[in-house]
Specification:
Elements (H helix, E strand, L loop, with lengths): L1 E10 L2 E7 L3 E5 L6 H15 L5 H7 L3 H4 L10 E8 L10 E9 L7 E10 L2 E6 L2 H5 L19 H8 L2 E3 L3 H5 L18 H7 L2 H18 L3 E8 L5 E7 L7 E4 L5 H15 L4 E4 L7 H4 L2 H11 L4 E4 L3 H4 L9 E5 L6 E4 L4 H8 L4 H5 L6 H6 L6
Parallel strand pairs: 3-13, 3-14, 8-12, 12-13
Antiparallel strand pairs: 1-2, 1-4, 4-5, 5-6, 6-7, 9-10, 10-11, 14-15
Length: 386
């Protein structure tokens, strides 16, 4: 399934949002415009349905409802989220499912977050509409969604399964190289790659070797002197990646991941994540640490994977090289623009000036990125005065 439409009210940076989404989505905008916060909507649903999660935990993990609610919220302070799930990314198709929740906070007492409503449509049929008579008799029921309860979600469990399968990647190379140096509990979903090598090692041997061979083929072109990539375990059974580089020795020189460059590790994780499963994948700035020539190829790599498997990818980027790909359609790009009443989000093909530039042969980078530059820097031409 795909998320084909997203509606938000009072979610973090966003006072009001309604956008259509494709199976490949690029988020562009200035710093602090809310690209990560927009993707966090999907992580929020994942945190609601995951084992040990739930609505209360998902809100608490984000610092409480006051940290989630948009600062521009006034007469209508409820947080509202609605997603449409479709079989394909054709916006002409009727969604298979629509899921919508409204969240508010108790005015006194424990000030728990609770549902102002929870609604689910199976195509056009409204099959859940809360609060219902049972909720009216016991208001405590509204502190939990039906989506997170196995005893209540049988008719729409495929929605719960979809949210639970969402992946997020913002790999931090230092965590991959030295996971033991960072104490404390693991973050659910391992978004920063602390346990990335364990994920690789847990994959069945046949699948793991096949994926590493494909990644090796890419690294042979992208990383100078690299000849071979494999996975091994050391004497203590700890998994590692190992590469052979051309060297004066006949068999070359071996290096493990603690000697890999940041770019090499991030490229490996990028390619592995695309092959890992068929579920929604969220990526933060995959261009970081990569050579510009490689960055220019990332959109086409995603496209090639999506031709073989149904997988939606949503990524944020500041990269002109990445957005210079002429294969990116304007309907695949969302531009985030900070305003006095929260960040505006628009599909760039819906902006007439941008649409005309694209029709005239401009790339997304040329047509869109100038709109994301801070106005003060555009006027003054410098950032810091010595």
């Amino acid at each position: 399934m795909y998320v084909s439409r997203l509606k938000l009210q009072n979610w973090k940076n966003f006072r009001q949002v309604e956008v259509k989404l494709r199976n490949r989505v690029f988020l562009a905008g200035p710093n602090a415009s809310g690209k990560s916060n927009l993707m966090d909507v999907f992580r929020f649903f994942r945190d609601i349905v995951k084992a040990g999660g739930g609505l209360q935990q998902a809100v608490q993990d984000r610092g409480g409802l006051s940290k989630i609610r948009c600062l521009a919220a006034r007469q209508e302070p409820d947080i509202e989220i609605e997603v449409h799930l479709s079989q394909s990314d054709s916006n002409e198709d009727e969604p298979l499912w629509r899921y919508a929740i409204g969240i508010k906070q108790e005015p006194r007492g424990h000030r728990q977050p609770y549902l102002s409503y929870e609604r689910i449509w199976d195509r056009q049929e409204l099959i859940l509409n809360r609060p219902d008579s049972f909720d009216e008799q016991d208001r405590l029921r509204l502190t939990q969604t039906h989506l997170e309860q196995i005893s209540a979600n049988e008719k729409f469990r495929s929605i719960s399964d979809f949210f639970n399968s969402i992946s997020y990647l913002h790999l931090v190379p230092q965590l991959v190289r030295n996971p033991e140096a960072f104490s404390g509990p693991n973050i659910t979903g391992d978004p920063f790659g602390r346990n990335f090598l364990e994920r690789v090692a847990r994959t069945s041997e046949r699948t793991r070797k096949a994926r590493l061979r494909k990644i090796e083929g890419a690294l042979l072109k992208a990383v100078p002197q690299l000849k071979h990539l494999t996975d091994i375990k050391d004497e203590a059974g700890i998994p590692h990646l190992e590469a052979v580089y051309e060297h004066w020795r006949p068999r070359g020189a071996k290096q493990r991941e603690d000697q890999f460059s940041d770019g090499t590790l991030r490229l490996i994780a990028f390619l592995w994540s695309l092959m890992e499963n068929d579920d929604l994948l969220l990526m933060e700035e995959p261009e970081l640490s990569l050579n510009a020539a490689i960055v220019r190829l990332l959109p086409s790599i995603i496209y090639q994977f999506q031709k073989k498997k149904v997988r939606q990818v949503i990524l944020s980027t500041h990269s002109a090289e990445l957005l210079a790909d002429k294969g990116i359609d304007g309907s695949e790009v969302l531009i985030l623009t900070p305003a006095a009443e929260g960040t505006d989000v628009k599909v760039v093909s819906d902006i007439n000036e941008v649409k005309l530039l694209l029709e005239g042969g401009f790339s997304i980078a040329e047509a869109v990125l100038p709109r994301t530059e801070p106005k003060a820097i555009q006027r003054q031409g410098y950032l810091f005065e010595v």
